[in-house]
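Bench notes, afternoon.
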Amino acid sequence: MNMKRALISLLFLIPLVIFLAYVFQGRLVLPQYLFKVGPFELRFYSLFILIGVLVSYSLARRQARRENVNLDQVDELVFYSVVFGAVGARALYVISNWKFYSKNPSEIFKLWHGGLSIQGAILAGITVFLLYSTLKKNVTFKPLQALDLGAAYLPLGQAIGRWGNFFNYEAFGEPTNLPWKMYVPIAMRSLEFKQYEYFHPTFLYESVWDFLLFLLLTHYMGRYRKNFGEVFSLYLCFYSLGRICIERLRLDSMYVGSIRLAQLLSALSILLGFVMYVVLRGGMIDVRDR
């Protein structure tokens, strides 16, 4: 069985590596949409976000069944989280770029022009999880349990969703000559970097980091979790640590004064996650006995 899985993985990885090599070298320029019919176009960005949501949702639902959680409530919670997550993602981006949107208010609602913040989506999602699991009558899961279910599988969705940035030629980093440098078409480069051709593929860095985090958190939840909330606190710490490191390479960061907003939010998240983990891990209630 392990040999079969290894062979399947190899058959998948080889074409992927060849494909990436062609794109990173600039021998293949990617389209931004899968197909277009009149004014409608299905963008790869939207497609990968949708796939990420569905994959994370299906795995979280399976884990919820193991924990004897009402699956109808899980479905309802995920629906609200996706809706308000999209609102939060747009809201944080607009607030961070208010100088532009205050002069162009009609652009606020034009999501097809781009502009979403994953951290805004996460903050909105956390709020929905807490409110739903606290206020919902006859809810079958506790607030921290809900956050664990979301945090364990969210990184996989994020890892998949980052490939939408790949097709959009966005969220790339500083110019570089490293062997894995990525070619960016001149139309996608900002004015001050028009003379450069190759950049850090920061979308790939975060995708790999998120995938490894998914493996770590699901393994921890299955073997080592003692109390609800531990997985969520670890997510806050490790996702934010990766984001701080990767953000310093990006060219499209949003700023609060001279500080990158993503790094500021990540630093606060690490502090919150660390305190939560210490408190929860030292608790006396063992989740396995519940």
